[in-house]
Design goal:
Blueprint lengths: L1 H15 L9 E5 L9 H8 L5 H9 L3 E3 L2 E2 L11 E5 L16 E4 L3 E6 L16 H9 L12 E2 L8 E7 L2 H12 L4 E9 L6 E4 L3 E3 L8 E3 L8 E8 L3 E8 L6 H8 L17 H6 L22 E9 L6 E5 L4 H33 L1
Parallel strand pairs: 8-15
Antiparallel strand pairs: 1-4, 2-3, 2-4, 5-6, 6-8, 7-8, 9-14, 9-15, 10-13, 11-12, 13-14, 15-16
C-alpha cells in the first residue's frame, strides 16, 4: 500500500511545496476591491516594493507583466479580481542558499530546531527570495530527484528578521501538524531575552494590551488598542543597568511584534527598535551616558556592539511531535547582545568600585 501511495505523496509535495532553494520566476497578484481604478504602474509600486521604479519600468517595457493573461502597459487600469502576473528571469547575482550557515540545536527524522542569526528572514520575501532561512533549509533537505530522500521542512514558529534565536521545524506532514497544533493551542512555552530602554519599578508583571494592525503605516506596524486582538505577555527583569535593562519576556499569545509592541506600550521599547521608538545605541550615545561623569569605556570600538533590535528567542518548550516527550530547545545568546551586556556589566562594576572608594577613605581617616 505504501508503495502505491508514495508516488502520490511525492507528487503532492512537489505540487504544493515548491523547492525554495531554487529561484522564483513568477508572481501572481490579485487586485483587491480597494485597489479598483489603480493604474498598473501604481499597483506594482504598491504591491511589489522590493523592485525599484527603474526595475519596474524595465519589467513593463520587456513585456514581463500580464493582466489576466495579456501583456499590459503601465497605464492599464485595473479592476477588482484582475490577476497580475510578473515573470522575471533569475538574477545571476542571487544568493546561493547553500552558503547560508545553519546552526542546528536539535535534529531527528521528524523535527529540527535551528538558531537563526539576526538579519536573516525566515521565509522568502521580495528581493530576499533565496537569502532566507527556509531557502537554506530546502537546500539542505530537498531532493526532488529521489523521492525517498526528498524532505520538506515546515515552520512551526516564526521570528522577525532582526530577532535571533530558536526556530522549530517539522520534517514531515504529521510532525508539522502536531507541532503547529501545540502552538495554536498555546501549549508551547516561549521565552525571549530583550535589552530595553530604562529601568523598571516592578521586577515582574504582565502586559495585557490588545494589539491592532496599523493599516495606515507603509511598513508593518502594530499598536495597543481596545479594538485589537487580546494579547498577554509576562515579563521579569533579569538585570538592571543605568539606562537599559535585560528582561525575560514570555508571550502567552502569538501576535505579530507582540513583545516589541507591549514593551513600547509600557514605556520600555527595545533598544535599536526604531519602529517602536527604541534608542539607537551609537558610540556617541553610549559614551555620553554618564553617572558621576564616568561613561562606558568604548576604547577600541569602531562600531556599536548592537545595531539591530535587541531581541533573542532564547528557548521553546513543547512535546516532541512523535514521542510526546517534553523537551526544551535553548539557543545561546547572540554575540552582539553578549558584547553589549559585557560592556554594561564592566561599567556597572567600575561605578560600584568608585562608589566604594569614598567610604574606604572615610573609614581610613576614622581609624587614624
Amino acid at each position: 500500500l505504501m508503495r502505491l501511495l508514495r508516488p502520490l505523496l511525492m507528487s503532492y509535495q512537489r505540487r504544493h511545496y515548491p523547492n525554495l532553494a531554487l529561484p522564483r520566476t513568477k508572481w501572481n497578484l490579485q487586485v483587491d476591491p480597494k485597489e479598483e481604478h489603480l493604474a498598473l504602474d501604481g499597483f506594482l509600486r504598491k504591491r511589489v516594493k522590493w523592485l525599484g521604479d527603474d526595475q519596474l519600468q524595465d519589467t513593463l517595457v520587456a513585456g514581463q507583466v500580464t493582466v489576466n493573461g495579456a501583456v499590459a502597459r503601465e497605464a492599464c487600469v485595473l479592476a477588482p479580481g484582475d490577476v497580475v502576473e510578473i515573470t522575471k528571469p533569475p538574477d545571476e547575482n542571487m544568493c546561493d542558499p547553500r552558503s547560508i550557515a545553519l546552526n542546528f540545536l536539535y535534529e531527528d527524522k521528524d523535527m529540527a530546531a535551528v538558531n537563526k542569526q539576526a538579519g536573516l528572514l525566515v521565509q522568502p520575501a521580495g528581493e530576499d527570495q533565496l537569502n532566507n532561512l527556509m531557502s537554506a533549509l530546502h537546500a539542505r533537505y530537498r531532493n526532488p530527484d529521489n523521492e525517498d530522500m526528498d524532505i520538506v521542512p515546515h515552520l512551526a514558529n516564526r521570528i522577525d528578521k532582526f530577532t535571533s534565536g530558536v526556530v522549530v521545524l517539522g520534517l514531515n506532514e504529521k510532525a508539522k501538524k502536531a507541532l503547529m497544533q501545540q502552538f495554536a493551542d498555546r501549549k508551547v512555552n516561549k521565552e525571549y531575552l530583550a535589552i530595553v530602554k530604562g529601568t523598571f519599578a516592578q521586577a515582574k508583571g504582565k502586559i495585557t494590551g490588545a494589539i491592532l494592525h496599523d493599516q495606515v503605516c507603509e511598513h508593518p506596524r502594530y499598536f495597543v488598542h481596545e479594538d485589537g486582538k487580546p494579547s498577554e505577555t509576562e515579563y521579569e527583569v533579569e538585570e538592571c543597568f543605568d539606562f537599559v535593562s535585560l528582561v525575560r519576556f514570555r508571550p502567552l499569545t502569538g501576535r505579530t511584534h507582540q513583545i516589541r509592541v507591549h514593551a513600547a506600550d509600557i514605556g520600555h521599547p527595545l533598544v535599536c527598535d526604531a519602529v517602536y521608538g527604541g534608542p539607537e545605541l551609537t558610540l556617541e550615545y553610549l559614551d555620553q551616558w554618564k553617572i558621576s561623569q564616568h561613561g562606558i569605556d568604548i576604547t577600541g570600538l569602531t562600531e556599536p556592539p548592537l545595531t539591530r533590535c535587541g531581541l533573542h528567542a532564547r528557548s521553546v518548550s513543547f512535546l516532541h511531535p512523535t514521542t510526546k516527550q517534553a523537551m526544551t530547545v535553548e539557543a545561546p545568546l547572540a554575540e552582539d547582545m553578549v558584547q553589549l551586556l559585557a560592556l554594561l556589566r564592566t561599567r556597572r562594576k567600575q561605578l560600584h568600585q568608585q562608589e566604594q572608594e569614598p567610604q574606604k577613605d572615610q573609614q581610613q581617616q576614622q581609624q587614624q
